């Protein structure tokens, strides 16, 4: 698990912003034919980054990097970014999240890229907060999955943290997760666990179980983290009770077919986590806007 306060890696932000700008402007330095034709390079101004919906913001940390890279490509001064709220803040429609001041060309060229990243992250954070609120007081936490947008996993998992959720594994490299196809290939749950421990003894092993028998087999083989997959609430409660009676220190995660409507019901079975792929694969964006203030200064044509 990643610490809830873990920040985004600045090197990752720089790489991701560069790719996003290449996509929007063409290969470096690229161009914005509309902005560069209509706005003099010496025109300066200010713009408000504004929430158009209630929600939880995330991804504001990328904004300075976007405007800095755009300024570098255009050969213009870097705008200042006065961030008014930290990532993870609940905001209301109309709240100003940041004020940007500097060359208007830079502000307008950077607009869509910074909005795409911050709106996407804020949508994930807002969705996650709904789950975290639904689980409040139950002792269970909401987990994300690997069902992320290619290239944006770090941002989306950061957004989950901002929304009050918990990251599970970052990829295939840091945690072993024995699922049904691995069991088929290895011959049994026990054989799959043994194979992972022999080849990669340093990693945590998690095991997916669809039935009570599979869960108990995994625990007997030494598994200390079980994914209880697609279980109806009565079966889930039965499995939790049986595992707790059999071994201490086993972490239990409910996964599959979870909805906000049954979140508390599932949590009350005694599981430690609810794993929700929809946090990252189905969250709508939070609508954000960059509103340029009227009146430019220093403009010459």
UniProtKB/TrEMBL annotation:
Quinolinate phosphoribosyl transferase C-terminal domain: residues covered: 124-291
EC number: 2.4.2.19
Keywords: Glycosyltransferase, Pyridine nucleotide biosynthesis, Transferase
Domain of life assignment: Bacteria
GO MF annotation: an example: nicotinate-nucleotide diphosphorylase (carboxylating) activity
Domain Quinolinate phosphoribosyl transferase N-terminal: 32-122
UniProt cross-references to NCBIfam families, sorted A to Z: nadC (TIGR00078)
Function recorded in the entry: Involved in the catabolism of quinolinic acid (QA).
PANTHER family, sorted: NICOTINATE-NUCLEOTIDE PYROPHOSPHORYLASE [CARBOXYLATING] (PTHR32179)
Family: Belongs to the NadC/ModD family.
Protein name listed in UniProt: nicotinate-nucleotide diphosphorylase (carboxylating)
Protein's organism: Cellulomonas fengjieae
